[in-house]
Design brief:
The structure is a homotrimer of 159-residue chains. Helix content of chain A is 31%, strand content 25%. With 159 residues, chain A is of the alpha+beta class. In chain A, α3 (111-126) links the parallel β3 (92-103) and β4 (133-139). The longest helix of chain A has 23 residues, at 64-86. The radius of gyration of chain A is 15 Å and the shape is globular. The relative contact order of chain A is 0.25.
């Protein structure tokens, strides 16, 4: 897939994906900072299509699907932040890295499957340029009780 | 605010802020590494003005203020490390990203408010250049029992 | 130590270190992405010489040594990923930063000692160029029940 930004907008439309309104930071920071060709994006929380935060610790196999939906919602918010920070997707070269923090009960070890909810969306939308490095870890609790938080680094062309 | 390093020293004085002695790493690593225009700073722990580590998990609303003081102490230590690594603040272009790890009881979800203790200090000192991306997550326990650990990425001018 | 890649291969041999087969990602992402002179490497899990995952939370002083072995195993896997991504070590300029996530019981505060299992290996192999920034935090649980997960950023020369 070409990395032409118009194609990305088209690809989102093809997939029937409407980006959410980019969330305002819940505190004293900014959604994204560009420096030296890398855009660092703040950790994003998962909101559903109605703007409701997806909350709750993941405890067992029955929670994987719920977790994947939350990770995908974080990825949509990351896309919305990229779109806002860069005024579109023309300047995206590559999704470089995502850091997935997953609210986990003490015996929940399927963080990779959960984080795939985000990873697969990036590949679906950007193709090869969406293939990223990743860390995925369990945490006991996240801001506002969120189920998942994901931050990202994106390589960008000069403006 | 201009990003002139002399102004930053003056701004610290105006605010009555004396930087702590930069902490030696508690193990086999270094406080900061510069590469490709980015300074990566190791996770810093919170020490008070007497050099005492601020410890203990945050459990409820009554702990937010204590957590903010700890986050601010981490930020002061990050500033001390920037100052040491760059021999002052002249080369700072932008605080790009901070990663805040907050020792949290299972129901404590105010990590953003706690991390503001660091974020607000950076903005107070650097103005626009202090506005950064951020992730803030709960963790069960930190090195030496610290209440907060924060690492950072700073965009810097060539030496 | 010179940063000549042939020397690194020699140094590994001198130390009797055989790199493991680089692990395939356990999910929908890639092991490493290079952008703007930085190689971001995915979080690596610790496998022993027989390919067995080192699992289990660290709970007390008696677990430090086990944790250090796990951290060292993560570092070996990071080296194997660097070697694969760059077709050797010639292009490595500097290990910039590692992020160590350590599966920890609620009272285990020796994350720095554990992470040294990785940090010391990098210095042993790369000398000054192996001295990196670091964050080390406790987490309740990791993918597949791993004891440690470590990701890394490496500064690299153009291909």
């Amino acid at each position: 897939m070409s990395m032409d930004g118009k194609n990305i907008a088209g690809r989102l439309a093809e997939l029937g994906i409407a980006l959410p309104q980019p969330a305002a930071p819940v505190a004293a920071y900014v959604p994204a900072v560009e420096a030296n060709g890398l855009l660092h994006i703040s950790g994003q929380l998962p909101f559903d299509a109605n703007g409701k935060l997806l909350t709750g610790r993941l405890d067992g196999a029955a929670d994987i699907e719920r977790g994947q939906a939350a990770a995908r919602a974080c990825a949509l918010m990351l896309l919305a932040q990229i779109n806002m920070a860069l005024s579109g997707f023309d300047r995206v070269i590559r999704i470089v890295k995502i850091g997935a923090f997953i609210a986990s009960g003490p015996d929940f070890t399927d963080q990779p499957k959960v984080a795939n909810g985000a990873s697969e969306l990036f590949v679906q939308i950007f193709g090869e340029a969406g293939r990223h490095a990743r860390s995925a870890v369990g945490v006991p609790v996240l801001p506002l009780g969120a189920a998942v938080e994901i931050d990202a680094i994106v390589a960008v062309r000069p403006a």
